[in-house]
Amino acid sequence: MRIPIALTIAGSDSSGGAGIQADLKTFGASGVYGxxxxxxxxxxxxxxxxxxxxxxxxxITAQIDAVFGDLTVDAVKIGMVSQRIVIEAIVEGLKRWSAxxxxxxxxMVATSGDRLLSPAAIDALRNDLIPRAQLITPNLPEAAAxxxxxxxxxxxxxxxxxxxxxxxxCPAVLIKGGxxxxxxxxxxxxxxxxxxxxxxxxxxxxxxxxxxxxxSSAIAAGLAKGETLDVAVGHAKAYVSAAxxxxxxxxxxxxxxxxxxFHAHDQA
Length: 268
What we know:
Structural class: alpha/beta
CATH architecture: 3-Layer(aba) Sandwich
CATH superfamily: Ribokinase
Low-confidence stretches: none
Helix content: 25-40%
Strand order of the largest sheet: 3-2-1-4-5-6
Number of domains: 1
């Protein structure tokens, strides 16, 4: 029986908590074979990013063609892509290989609040990449940035922003509620036929590095296995919530540590 295959197109986190490394761990924990296209190398640890080395667009194209030319890719997760030329190379690759089940995590805003993409890259993200996605997974600040609006603070505002994001050309939007307040962290799956909330207990821990990467890759893993979108989102939400709850069982680094991707296999 052929194993489902998911591809992550994202940057590398040298400390292993986010980016490509988090995606591959999530794929493995989900029973999916993971392939990767690296868009950038980072010198990074739990305390922060010391440097970034961008991978040339032509080499990103070479990686995409190498993977799709040999592997049967069932789903694609796309993480942070900071340059317009890189986004264009990825879009052309998705078109060339008729990629399906594409999940885009539009990483646009740093934890500090700083914008991570240039205006030209944001335009390419909105106009070229998002229309090729089955799902985009912005958090509250990223949803606001995509729409050039203030961050939503109520369920009605979140739902309305989600409906406006659908007009960018993707059939579904998952607005993540981790930046919200309250006892529960609720994500909202917005489609033309309605809004579905996915709630989980809000967990107090400093070890949340890589949560966004892991959620989007867990959804892609579910889609690769043939799950419907709402089922994949529900399973991914449960997986990441449990990984956050187990994060303090790890002792990695001195800053914001990673979530526990393999919590289900922890014998401690």
